Structures are given as C-alpha cells and as structure tokens.
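Session log. Operator J.P. requested a structure for one protein chain; no other inputs attached. Running the standard single-chain path with token output.
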Amino acid sequence: MTVKQTFLALVCVQALHSVEEYVFGLYAVFPPAQFISGLASPDLEAGFLMVNASFVAFGACCYWWPVRQGWPSAVAIAWFWFAVEIVNGLGHPTWSVMQGGYTPGLATSLLLLPLALLLARLLVNLELETGVVGPRNSGGQT
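Structure written below.
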C-alpha cells in the first residue's frame, strides 16, 4: 500500500470508528468525549455527532487535497493523523482492559492501530528514500 492508500483507509476506518463510538454511546461514558461534545452542544449526543462528523470530513478533505495531490503539507498532515490514530488504537484497548470489558470504540480501534503503524512505516520509508525529513518530502511520492 502507498501512503495515499493507507491514509484513505485510515480516514475510512475512523469514520467506522466514530459510528461505533456513537452507536454504543461513548459520549455518555467517557469524560473527555463528554467535554469535547459539550463544547459543540449542550446536548452531548448532538455535540458528539457534530464533532465526529467534522473530524471525518476534515480527514476526507486532508486526503482529497493535500495527501492525494502531494502538497508539501501532506507528510505533516499524515503524521498528525498517525498521532491521533495511535492514541485511538492504544487508548481504547487500554481503557477496555481497565474497565474489564468492552468500551465504545474498541472493535474498530483494533483496525486503526495497525493502519496507523503502517502509515508511520511508509512515511519513514518515504523520508529515507527522499533524504528529506518532514513536510517538504511529499512531492508526488505519497
């Protein structure tokens, strides 16, 4: 897989992850989700939908323009998504272990983790191949 393909897969799985979190009520049981949802709306369910829909739309926009088109910012954006998804991929299983069972978002987090790690490997390989570290090396090779 390429950086572009992996990034798109990560955004798509994030969309599924957001659906899983919504359906199983993450906004009702996880204080950080309650806080962020509350910033968008006093109705935590509605706020959660707004925040997550916006995040997935942002991911789609990041793919459609900077990543897909190889903008100079593409690598930095991909590293940002890696960081977010590694937190999801490690955080949900850790929380579930601490709770002693399933917590909303666990199932899809198990897909986010390997995709995030793959994205990191591809980004590092890209940096090694081009000899440039950071956002400047994305020129068409993502």
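Operator note: DSSP finds six helices and no strands in the chain.
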